[in-house]
Design goal:
Layout: H1 2-23
Length: 138
């Protein structure tokens, strides 16, 4: 008998709770846009044109990673970093035709440090025909 009363009470509370949620109209909170469109769709710019051979671009601040003066279509995967096929570790006393990877990117045993494995996280390609998306007052 007690189980029957408890079950009936629980069902009554559940049904009354469900009927309240149907009739209650809750207004959505206003966001920062206050009803404005979330974004403006812009047309894509021209495809970037990369120089065949470019001079080193000036850096904007001390410690800025140098830009890549060529296209970088070769992938960087977990199994292979295609940048290091040309840009190898620096060798003392030897000058390279291609810029060597900075010594700080390597561990003591000569292996590339995993913190620097994804080169394009810091270095970007230098395109000739791309204008900055926003002004820079840095």
């Amino acid at each position: 008998m007690n189980k029957l009363l408890l079950t009936a009470g629980a069902v009554a509370i559940l049904l009354s709770g469900c009927s309240m949620t149907e009739s209650a109209q809750v207004e959505a909170p206003k966001g920062m846009r206050d009803g404005a469109a979330p974004a403006v769709t812009m047309a894509a710019g021209p495809a970037p044109v990369y120089p065949k051979k470019a001079a080193t671009a000036a850096r904007n601040w001390d410690g800025q990673p140098p830009v890549i003066p060529h296209d970088y279509k070769r992938p960087i995967t977990t199994k292979r970093n295609s940048c290091t096929s040309c840009h190898k570790a620096p060798v003392a006393g030897k000058t390279a035709k291609i810029t060597a990877t900075h010594a700080s990117h390597y561990e003591a045993n000569g292996k590339l440090n995993n913190l620097f494995y994804n080169c394009t996280a810091c270095h970007v390609a230098q395109a000739d025909n791309v204008k900055p998306a926003i002004g820079n007052l840095f």
